[in-house]
Design a protein that fits this description.
The complex is a heterodimer. Chain A is mainly β. Helices cover 7% and strands 32% of the residues of chain A. Chain A contains 4 helices and 38 strands. Chain A has a 5-stranded mixed beta sheet, with no helix packed on it. Chain A has a 4-stranded antiparallel beta sheet with strand order 2-38-37-36, with no helix packed on it. Chain A is globular. The termini of chain A are far apart. By secondary structure, chain B is mainly α. Chain B has 2 domains: 3-48, no CATH class; 59-129, Cytochrome c-like domain (Cytochrome Bc1 Complex, Chain D, domain 2), CATH 1.10.760. Chain B is globular. Classes of the chains: A mainly beta, B mainly alpha.
Chain lengths: 649, 135
């Protein structure tokens, strides 16, 4: 603590622009510890150091290792990847904040991302006392988790032209960490590795051609020494894929297309060349089972929306694919909506859990789909176990085959080319759920997810009215109308995986559009589009606490412990994604951080992100403290050398 | 007689009474104003020759405009307005339409299309959306 205070005093003498508490503190403490060890070390200490060095030879202090990622379950002080753990539970074994005391949650600090504020859809990461945040326009921020003060930021400075090839706002859902790098995918389809301490670009690579409609909005996934990314663009006639890159160098390791090419199994489910523009995008993050060595990735809608031009099942769109982690080879696939005629992406990140169903232990993969059904598969082989309808009044299908899970399509809810609008189709293409991650509480065997209740009208164009795109054009062959069905469009559900039933529901007049996190203490945190961040009782769904964050919540909350305090963090970021189609909003981009009683009295000095513009405020009498050079003629002062001429209109 | 009507009449009679004075004023001042106005001549010329879409009502242009609309605009503007405003029978002037498409619209999701579209492309889209009430 003395060290900390002294450092603060030292910094007070610095220029305001350099005020960045936290960074020097961390650096100094570690330096001091190392110095102490060097001064007094025994042979034994050295041996231990060498042994540790052997195992962690690749990793500098404070760097994230693959080992760290594998053991993320027990690490309650960090959140190292999009889903926290490879199995995607978003379950944190923390107990400081409980159903009994959660009403004492107060803001500790807020960080503002600024920019265009078209929505914060991210899951923040926390590592070594630093929050890693991504924002609209693929921007990245590193923020001191103790003070909320920015360490660095990165802006890929996208061309304005890129806007025309993303369907639904300039969102980004998060970054990935490995070694000394932070990885982010950009809207112009690049993968960029940044130095985690400085934000400097270490490498970047072109994942695909944005001008052909490809973009990246999802968080990358680190597996072993690779960084994996998917792509968005299912509305622009892309062919979806997952690519794996060497995390150190950015060299491509493997590419797996979700839509098999000629000669590959599954290509026969497409007619003619339709596989080339068939969609099957991969715009969220996958899950990973290290024991089975399988990476699971969910895929988007088939393209174009007008399904009549692509007869067949259209594998592997609207599906989960399981890939060998080392080669990317598809081991199995399961289609939730074969021959998708409703823009039913299957895109929220899969959840992997070992559960006992009917007395039998199952290695399950759980998924809630845009199509309104909650699914459990056997993740070793992709076999269907069960599917439960969650949204009331699903009408695109007459039901699922109990053995295979294949839906029996309701022909009345399939629009015809050149025909009238078919309505109301339930669920709408905005989904029961869309991309938002689920949270699974293994203590209760409950899974938590949003489930919006609205409908759509769908109209397919005559087939001579559209053609495969050439330069990143929309490839829909259809248009739609979104309809409200009830007073409470927004539903957030607690579902009992073992007993296959909804145990509770929370409703909101606005849709839910956020992910969730659940804790061992029996809480679930999520938020709604009205801006309410809320804590629910995991057992009953009772809203125990809520806080108006000022703007819609469309990202995912996280929780972790730092200096003995449990924090809960939630992005509150305007309206992004498809929600910009239906709502206008208070625009904002804020990262709210909460703790019991706001974390108590200040434990570290507060700081500020306010930076004085260099030269703008010289002290009286200092060089530069004149009005010269900045005064426009005609304002009563004579023009001086270097003054700017007035532009003639 | 309503208060509003009374007010209106009063105003009118006031103007009528001062008509002679007004004419005198105009005779005196207008020549001077003409001098001051020369700086604005350029603007006046532009207003007089407001940009007009030369493709309006032309069948082939409308067809090409429909193709562009369905592949570039429909994602937001949909069949009769969606996340973007309804463009069919738009009330924007031809010039405003051209400028909005080419430059985009700050603070909204409307991108600038000048790097992709030619002026002719935009005119054709305009000709299409003016040719009917919805997609």
């Amino acid at each position: 603590m003395i060290l900390l205070k002294d450092l603060w005093k030292k910094r007070e003498g610095n220029k305001p622009g350099l005020l960045e508490p936290g960074i020097p503190i961390v650096g100094r403490c570690k330096g001091a510890a190392a110095g102490y060890a060097m001064g007094t070390l025994s042979v034994l200490v050295m041996i231990i150091a060498i042994v540790i060095g052997f195992f962690y030879s690749e990793a500098e202090a404070g760097e994230v290792t693959y080992e760290n990622l594998l053991k993320a379950h027990t690490n309650t002080s960090e959140w190292l990847m999009y889903s926290r753990t490879y199995d995607g539970h978003r379950y944190v074994p923390l107990n400081q904040i409980t159903p009994a005391n959660v009403h004492r949650l107060r803001p500790a600090w807020v960080f503002t991302t600024g920019g265009e504020n078209r929505g914060l859809e991210l899951t923040p990461l926390v590592h070594d006392g630093v929050l890693y945040i991504s924002a609209d326009q693929s921007r990245v921020f590193a923020v001191d988790a103790r003070t909320g003060i920015k360490k660095w930021s990165y802006d890929p400075k996208l061309s304005k032209d890129v806007e025309r090839v993303y369907c639904c706002g300039s969102n980004n859902r998060g970054v990935a960490l490995l070694g000394n790098m932070v990885y982010v995918g950009t809207l112009d389809a690049r993968l960029v590795a940044l130095n985690k301490d400085t934000g400097a670009v270490i490498w970047e690579t072109k994942v695909s051609d944005w001008e052909q409609g490809y973009s990246i909005t999802g968080a990358p996934l680190v597996v072993k020494d690779m960084v994996l990314t998917g792509v968005a663009g299912g509305e622009f006639g892309i062919r979806g894929f997952v690519k794996a890159y060497d995390a150190k160098t950015g060299n491509l390791r493997w590419t797996t297309y979700t839509i098999p090419g000629p000669g590959e199994p599954g290509n026969e489910t497409w007619s003619g060349d339709t596989w080339k523009n068939g969609g099957g995008s991969t715009w969220t993050t996958g899950a990973f089972d290290p024991e089975l060595n399988l990476v699971y990735w969910n895929t988007g809608n088939a393209g174009p929306w007008n399904c009549h031009v692509r007869p067949g099942d259209n594998k592997w769109t609207a599906a989960t694919i399981a890939m060998d982690a080392d080669t990317g080879k598809i081991k199995w696939g399961f289609q939730y909506t074969p021959h998708d005629c409703w823009d039913y992406d299957s895109i929220s990140t899969p959840v992997l859990a070992d559960v006992t169903l009917g007395g039998k232990k199952v290695k399950a993969l759980m998924h809630y789909d845009k199509n309104g059904f909650f699914y459990v598969l056997d993740r070793t082989n992709g076999k269907f176990i069960y599917g439960e309808p969650i949204v009331p009044g699903i009408n695109w299908t007459l039901g699922l085959d109990p053995e295979t899970g294949r839906p029996k399509v309701n022909p009345d809810m399939v629009a015809q080319s050149g025909g009238p609008e078919v309505a109301p189709v339930v669920p709408s293409l905005e989904g029961a759920i869309d991309w938002q991650p689920l949270a699974y509480n293994p203590d209760l065997n409950y899974i938590f997810f949003l489930s919006n209740d609205w409908a759509m009208g769908l109209k397919f164009w005559a087939e001579n009215k559209f053609a495969p795109p050439t330069k990143g054009e929309w490839y829909l062959g259809a248009d739609y109308q979104q309809y409200l069905r009830s007073e409470n469009t927004g539903n957030f559900v607690g579902f009992d995986v073992v007993n296959r039933k909804i145990v509770w529901k929370v409703t909101s007049p606005a849709p839910f559009w956020a992910g969730a996190v659940t804790t061992q203490s029996g809480l679930v945190f999520t938020g709604d589009m009205r801006g309410y961040f809320m804590a629910l009782d995991a057992r009953t769904g009772t809203v125990l606490w809520q806080f108006q964050t000022g703007s819609g919540i469309i990202g995912s909350p996280i929780t972790y412990e730092l200096d003995g305090i449990q924090y809960v963090v939630v992005p509150s970021g305007g309206i992004g994604g498809d929600m910009i189609f239906y709502y206008t909003e208070p625009k904002a981009g804020n990262i709210w951080v909460f703790a019991l009683d706001g974390g108590g009295p200040p434990r570290v000095p507060f700081g500020s992100n306010l930076v004085t513009i260099p030269g703008a405020l010289p002290k009286v009498g200092e060089p530069g403290a004149t009005l010269g050079g900045r005064v426009l003629p005609g304002y009563g002062f004579p023009p001086t050398e270097g003054s700017e001429p007035i532009k003639k209109e | 007689m309503s208060l509003v009507e009374k007010h209106f009449l009063k105003k009118r009679s006031g103007i009528a009474r001062s008509r002679v004075g007004l004419v005198a004023f105009l005779l005196l001042v207008l020549p001077l104003m003409k001098v001051f106005a020369t700086g604005d001549e350029q603007t006046q010329v532009n207003t007089a020759k407001e940009l007009k879409n030369p493709y309006l009502g032309q069948k082939e242009a409308i067809e090409e405009g429909e193709r562009i609309y369905r592949s570039r605009c429909v994602g937001c503007h949909k069949s009769r307005g969606g996340s973007g405003p309804n463009l069919f029978k738009t009330k924007l002037t031809d010039k405003q339409f051209l400028e909005t498409v080419m430059n985009g619209r700050k603070g909204t999701n409307m991108p600038a299309w000048s790097n992709l579209f030619s002026i002719e492309d935009v005119w054709k889209v305009h000709a299409f959306v003016m040719s009917r009430d919805q997609l």
